[in-house]
Amino acid sequence: MTAPEFKGASTLEAFAEAATFPASDRSAAITGTVADLNGGLIVD
Fold first, then answer.
1. How many Å apart are CA 10 and CA 31, to the nearest integer?
2. What is the pLDDT along the chain (44 residues), one digit of tens a residue?
3. What is the CA radius of gyration of the chain?
4. In 10 A of CB 10, how many CB atoms?
5. Are 15 and 39 spatial neighbours (Cβ–Cβ below 8 Å)?
6. In this structure, is the dihedral angle defined by the CA atoms of residues 33, 17, 40 and 3, taken in order, positive or negative?
């Protein structure tokens, strides 16, 4: 298994889509998931 290719910094539109997806009809079959909206930045 390889890591996905980095495609650059996230856009505001990408964050907005990820944040609003759970409220959309497209997410009807998804349950019990966690969306980590950190733009690829992890600070310990």
1. 25
2. 666 666 666 788 888 888 898 889 988 888 888 877 777 777 76
3. 13
4. 14
5. yes
6. positive
